[in-house]
Amino acid sequence: MADDSSHSPGKLHVRLKERAESTMSVDTIATMDFKVQFVDDRNPFAVSFPEPTRAPTFTFDTNQSLSEQVAPLRRFLKAPHRDEDAGVTLSTPDGIVYLDLDSTLNEVGEDHTLLPDSRRCVIILRTQLGVRVHHCIETLLNSKAKDLRKALFALKRVFQEDHEFVQEFVGNEGLSALVEVGQQSEQSIQQYVLRALGELMLYVDGMNAMINNRTAVQWLHSLINSDYRLVVKGSLELLVVFANFSDKQSSTTVTSSDRVSPTSGVSRTSRVIIEAVKIEDTARGLRPWETIARMLNEQGRCTDGELLVLCMTLVNKVLDAVPDQDSFYAVVDSLEDLEMEKIILRHQTKRKNSKLLEQFQVYEKAVSEEYDVENVDESQPSRGGKRNGEKSTRRSGDKGGKENGTPPTTKLVEETKAQLQEQKPAAPKESAPVGRLDLNETKAQQQQQQQ
């Protein structure tokens, strides 16, 4: 009977009702309290802070999309934003996370594992990221003079503070807009553009955007011809930073918030720089790398020691990360045709700039090592058909001792050192002082005359 009573319709109904109530209680407990604030960033360049200072508490429905709760939150905070432009971010001890308005807080918790300790988090109402970026780009393209300088100065600060903004900025052709502003502005504005661009290039997303935007690299190279030293210095520094970026850092495993660190190795940036140098110099009626060679030859208004070091550093960085041997020889041949060996010799004779001489040594070492590798390869049987033979024939006709496997620059420097040593007066022998030799010779002559 006990078993029959346990399976009676009445008790089974009670058990199902209890289970339904318990399930319903789980669904109804779908709220979570967060401290909330807003940031008035309708002007993306203005400095603004979260308000109110003492954040109130707002109750969110964790099963409802955030887009449906933006309007009640805005009214609760009395924020000045428009509902269609407003978004939310989650401020945590580890940083700021932009929340997808189509997601619920439960889904956000699954993605970021941040919600269990809601007391340490603050939800901030602010303008959506895409709206801010579009407003920023429009302001840059339509502002002039003083307003443009303020906008560029503020843009550098925004890049420093918000890595998500950097990703959205380059994804909406912000880099092209920045370069366009630099091309159409005077040198005082160009300095601010270079500072903002330098901050952008500290991020992996910014570097990848530079690789894909060849116009930006060409514009940097064109600024080397500027009559203003700070512009020339800024462009050279950014080109050196760009040449330092390797393909390992641009891999998909690197997040957009990661900063770029100096490195070496095969890099696409060296190829981009080589192409930009060729295009820009040719457009000016010059030979490839002639702009750099003129700088090193101190032809121009801005040719102080620091700029010369930056020029030679750029050359060495490009050669160090060049993707193939043919590109290496193309750069070296262009520089040698522009009398690079004479430029090095002249600076070595002056001995005024030790840092520049160190960069010349790096260049000579790189060229020597490449020729040594080539000579070893040529002494072995060719595996790839006539590729090694073609390279040997092409190099054997070059000037300056290349047929003997000695780089022209290194050979010229060695010959010059040998000539200088020959011109030095010979040192007196230690075993026989000069005065005593003269005295002995005089006595011998007297004795012969007496005989």
What features would you highlight for this structure?
21 helices; alpha+beta; disordered N terminus; 451 residues; 7% strand; 60% helix
Could you walk me through the main structural features you see in this protein, from its secondary elements to its overall organization?
- The chain has 451 residues and is α+β, with helices and mostly antiparallel strands.
- 60% of the residues lie in helices and 7% in strands.
- The chain is built from 21 helices and five strands.
- Strands 2-1-5-3-4 form a five-stranded mixed sheet.
- Helix 8 (174-183) packs antiparallel against helix 9 (187-200), helix 15 packs parallel to helix 18 and helix 17 (340-350) packs parallel to helix 20 (408-423).
- It starts with a helix and ends with a helix.
